[in-house]
Amino acid sequence: MKEKLEQIKSAAEAEFKSAADPGALENIRIKYMGKKGELTAVLKGMGKLSKEERPVVGALANEIRQKLEGEIEERKSALMAELEKKRLSEEVIDVTMPGRRRAEGKLHPLTQVMDEIKRIFMGMGFSIAEGPEVEYDYYNFEALNIPKNHPARDTQDTFYIEDNIVLRTQTSPIQVRVMEKTRPPIRIIAPGKVYRSDTVDATHSPVFHQIEGLVVDKDVTMADLKGTLELFVRSLYGEKTRARFRPHHFPFTEPSAEMDISCWSCGGKGCGVCKGEGWIEVLGCGMVHPKVLENCGIDPEVYSGFAFGIGLERIAMGKYDINDLRLFFENDLRFLSQF
Amino acid sequence: MKLPMSWLSDYTDMEGITPKEYADKLTMSGSKVEGVENLGADIDKVVVGRVLTCEMHPDSDHLHVCTVDVGGTEPIQIVCGAPNVAAGQKVPVALNGAALPGGIKIKKGKLRGVVSNGMICSHEELGIDASRLGYEPEYGILVLPEDAEIGSDVKKLFGLDENVVEFEITSNRPDCFSIIGLARETAATFKRPFRLPEVSINETGGDINDMLSVEILDKDKCKRYNARIVKNVKIGPSPKWMRERLEACGVRAINNIVDITNYVLLEYGQPMHAFDIRDIAGGKITIRRAGGGEEIKTLDGQDRKLTNDDLVIADESGAIAIAGVMGGFDSEIKPDTTTVVFESAMFEPSTVRLTAQRVGLRTEASSRYEKGLDYHNTVPAIERACQLAELLGCGENVSGMIDAMGNVEGETKIAFRPEKINAFLGTDVSTEEMVRILTALEVSVDTDAMTLTPPSFRPDLQAEADIAEEIARFYGYDVIPTSLLRGETTAGVKTPEQLMADTLSGVLTAQGMYEIYTYTFQSPAILDKLNIPEGSELRNYVKIANPLGEDTSMMRTTIAGSMLEILSRNYNYRNKSARLFELGRVYRPNPNGAGELPDEPQILMLGMYGGVDFYDIKGVCEEIFERLHIKNAEFEPVSDDPVYHPGRAARIMIGGRAAGIIGEVHPAVLRNFEIGTKAYMGEIDFGAMFAAAEQSVKYVPLTKFPAVTRDFSIVTDKSTPVAQIEKVMKKAGGRLLTHLELSDVYTGEQIPDGKKSVMYKAEFKATDRSLTGEEADNLHAKIVKALGAQLGAELR
User: Fold this and answer.
1) pLDDT tens for each residue of B693-710
2) CA of B580: which chain A residue's CA is closest?
3) The domain containing residue A127 runs over which residues?
4) Are the CB atoms for A248 and A258 separated by under 8 Å?
5) Do B508 and A333 touch (CB under 8 A)?
């Protein structure tokens, strides 16, 4: 009996080892250890053994059975691992092929630049104000110290709707509307469309965008104006950017200035972008004219303030190296998808 | 304004100042320099020479071989092809290595075997306009006057060794439209002395009052009128120095009298006019308003019709000049003029501006008058003109000057508060420094009364802020310190509307939509392209009174036209597909009529084509409503909107009110916009969305009890919208019906004509217990019953 068991064991082990896949392995298991298997048959035949032999053979048979089961499991895992390895090697894909994308749209480049400017000023405590595009002559001109027949009206060729209603030529009327309604301290920027009767070319458009800024409070100085705007251009164009303020004239500010920044292309040495000057004009600004404050019911002896106006297209053209303003309004997807 | 730097030296010290330094400093003190042009920059190594000998070239029938003295130790040999070259002439000689305009370089070489060491030049080769010469040049080489110095640079001879500075002068500084005004700014900028021209004239007898009288009838429009007479005038060219200065300023020399008026205009900024006294009928000048319909032929030969608001200079027979704009054709200076009347006057700025606009003439004179001139300047200017007439030897001054006054403003007094100015600028400028700056600008400072009186040529100095600017300019804008805002802090915030617009942009870009920017004015014809019927509200628009053209005269009442134009452009640029949006304004006339501002509501405009259908654009809307927590939006079929397909469009209802429309664009409209594919658009009122958007969102507890699902397969009339089916199902299902999903819509075999099969998957759930299968079956039955009763639908 013992010999028989040992025989079965070595025969089964030999077969396990040669099994090529889990299916074959299972068949071999059944062959030896299934209900009608060889080892099972031996165990069933144990009744014929003597009382003394039975426990000895029984123990041996169980030992062999356990051993074989362990070996089967081991062999099975090995076979499974091999199979998986094979499958994985067959499932190789070309990971350099392009990804499948869920196409997102994009915001217009003018919005992207506007958002950046808004972010910078909101960080300095400025809120966002708005106003009508079709505006009273009073808000667009008179309240801003530009009476009828003032020569400054010539430089802003105005679209009229009626005698006293215009398409705003600047975002400055929003200043007046805000000052009429709000008591200082005031810190706002006011972005929006403005209109001037210029024919369309690479640098002109009858519709374009400005961002107006206004600060009114006690003790606001021209030094504050310089500091605030320098901080703005350094945030927008980088820490190394230098600003230069040149005297200028606007009817609604006094003193008035234009701000140039060191050329973003050459850093100030002079190049084609800055026409050799090293400086690029970016905005107009000044201390709010006392008459404008008075027109809005704010006492210029108590309060002072500064204002500035930024041309959005100009900033965006510089930032993205765009040489034709018309591209912004053509909305060709080949253009829009670049930003 | 062009300024020759040599002219400046007459009034201030320019020693040691380079053009670059000059441009930088003046720009920083407020007179912006646009550029500096060196007139002779492209001419080099061209000198005066004398032709010593001139022989025919042995090998040519038109070339000459010349020896020319160019001031060196030896004469040089030059081969010259000009027909007029001759021994004894003084000529411009381009030496070996010379440069001429147009990038031409001259090198020595051989012409038909004979050595040539340079070139004798014509005036064209030197780029010199014949008018600069003062005489008519011959054909061929330029023969120079006998007094030209041999060996000297020809640039000097023609005044081309000059730097001309071009300024951008702002409208508040009429005084700087003059050499003297800029010299004053220059002197103040460089802290150097400033001197006015010394003017004195010899009066040679007679009395102007016996020859001419002047009367101002409109004393508000004419502030001052001065006249002087020069007799025994000989009209001829003015001298070289004067012509060169005029040319450098971009003014063409004409004759001595006209040149004097232009010279004084440039120098003093005071427009001058010269009449021939023969043309002043009755010897009397009146300054009056034009009669309605009065006509005048101006110097440029044009007939101009005037109105009662225009001011004219008139004699007994009628207008002889339009005040401040242009002289009359008939009274101009003629070759045989012998007695000249000089006019130097001050007219009211807006009168000149409006007249210049009305007659369409913007002249050197009118552009100065309209900015406001100084009535104190008329007398120095007219005396300067008479001095120059004398200096040029073109006539004798009759004794006396006519000085007619109109109504003029008094001087301005401004309180001088140095500490206030410093507080305003954020500076610490000493009072002494302020006084120095103001004095250099000819502001008189009374340090006892602490008052300032600006000079009369500075009408822009009205108040303390104006004085602060003067201090800042010459103290230096760049020296003013920088500081950050102090005081009460403010929170930088956006309004809820602005925040919602940001959210919308986020949803839309995530949906693959690109933002566009379009013009807000359009052609009214676009309404025809959109097939908008007569009488539609959309045809009631805000009209621009003075548009660039008819095609940009309408403030849009709908963005649909803008979107279709952009879709069309992209389609015709062969972009395969497009998904676009714009959050823009439309403009609706105020119902209260004229004099009131229009309404400017914001509209969200959507547009797409290429691989999309109606349900794509609807999906975008649904995503928006989901994100904005708009719960009460519904889509109702609409068939009567001319822009959209009658069977593929839906009105968007928010809270039962129309808030927009979406749909497939009507094929006729697509054709009108030249779009060769189906396109889909949507228009949603931003305000309606804002009003409906739930601002505060509350969490609904997640239930731990499982859901039970049931399928519905029903047959209804084909025309019944699924929205209606869902409404019935939701009502019947009540709270326990937590989710409803349309899984299929089918027509065809096995379904009777005029019917459709609709399949739904429904999910039932309770928050407090597990629903039993029986409960779900009951709900199913209840819903089917409701569908049958309300819509005549049956189970399939």
Assistant:
1) 988 888 887 878 889 999
2) A105
3) 109-336
4) yes
5) no
